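Q: I'm writing up a methods section and want to include an example of the input and output format. Could you take the sequence below and give the corresponding predicted structure tokens, formatted cleanly so I can copy it straight into the document?
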Amino acid sequence: QVQLVESGGGLVQAGGSLRLSCAASGSIFSRKTMGWYRQPPGKQREMVASIRSGGMTQYAESVKGRFTISRDNAKNTVYLQMTSLKPEDTAVYYCNVVPRTVLAPSWGQGTQVTVSS
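A: Here is the clean output for your methods example:
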């Protein structure tokens, strides 16, 4: 079974930067569109960025111009570079395939990002 392990979160002041990583086990990774999702406290999980196997990217309006998603297929890893962070970016961040069908991997433990004002 594919496992997803997110890392790189932490506490940062508004305006700061963080780089998240997601390591995926198994051969699924290179063929799949991957995405970063986040779940703010008390809210639903939402997708913030996605990247196709060939590198085409999409972003939620709320993060466009501030976040950059990338991937290294040789390392089965997807990254999220976050800059100009805002308090409203505070959330647990997860990675997973896009779209999530019944065959999608289970959610990992996520990585907490906290942005102080």
